[in-house]
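Researcher: We plan to redesign the surface later, but first we want a full-length starting point. C-alpha cells attached.
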C-alpha cells in the first residue's frame, strides 16, 4: 500500500497505510466526526486492544470492546455504537474475505463490483462508498474499470474529500470545500 497522510499523525498514518482493516475502520468512523480524527481511530484501538486482527476484534467481548472504544479520548463521538459497527465489520471481513480486508478491493473486477463489496460493509452507505472508491483510486492506485463513475464527483481533481488529503494544506482545502457545500445546501 502507498503512504497515506490522512491524519497528520505519523503513527496513525503509518498504520492505515500498511493495514487494510485499519483503513476500512477509519472509513467507517469518518461520519459526524473530523476526518483526520476518524482515520486516527484505528491506532487508538491498536494501542488499547493490542491488535487490529479482524478475527480477534470479532471475537472480543462486545461490552469490553465498547468500553475501550468509548474511553476518552474516544475513537469517535459515538464510541460505543461505533465499537459495535467495528465488530460487525470485523465479522464481515472474517466471514466473507477470509480475514483479509484487502480482498475487499484487490478482488474487485470492476468499479461496480468494488462498490457492491463496500456497500456490503457496515456503515458504508452510498456517499461513503463513493468517497472510499475515490480514496482507493486516487491514493492507492486501485482503479478497476469504472471506478471513476462510481466515485462520481470525488474522482475529480480538487479538494473534495479525504481522498484528496495528502498534507496539512490539502486538509484545510477539503475542510473549506465541505464548509462551502454545507453553506450552499442551506
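Model: Full-length starting sequence:
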Amino acid at each position: 500500500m502507498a503512504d497515506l497522510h490522512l491524519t497528520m499523525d505519523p503513527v496513525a498514518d503509518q498504520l492505515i497505510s500498511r493495514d487494510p482493516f485499519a483503513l476500512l475502520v477509519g472509513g467507517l468512523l469518518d461520519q459526524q466526526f473530523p476526518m483526520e480524527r476518524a482515520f486516527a481511530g484505528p491506532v487508538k484501538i491498536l494501542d488499547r486492544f493490542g491488535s487490529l486482527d479482524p478475527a480477534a476484534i470479532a471475537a472480543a467481548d462486545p461490552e469490553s470492546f465498547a468500553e475501550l472504544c468509548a474511553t476518552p479520548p474516544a475513537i469517535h463521538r459515538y464510541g460505543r455504537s461505533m465499537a459495535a459497527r467495528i465488530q460487525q465489520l470485523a465479522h464481515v471481513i472474517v466471514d466473507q474475505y477470509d480475514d483479509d480486508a484487502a480482498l475487499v478491493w484487490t478482488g474487485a473486477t470492476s468499479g461496480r463490483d468494488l462498490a457492491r463489496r463496500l456497500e456490503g460493509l457496515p456503515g458504508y452507505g452510498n456517499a461513503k462508498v463513493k468517497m472510499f472508491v475515490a480514496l482507493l483510486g486516487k491514493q492507492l492506485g486501485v482503479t478497476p474499470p469504472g471506478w471513476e463513475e462510481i466515485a462520481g464527483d470525488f474522482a475529480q481533481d480538487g479538494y473534495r474529500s479525504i481522498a484528496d488529503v495528502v498534507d496539512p494544506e490539502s486538509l484545510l482545502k477539503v475542510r473549506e470545500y465541505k464548509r462551502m457545500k454545507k453553506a450552499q445546501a442551506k
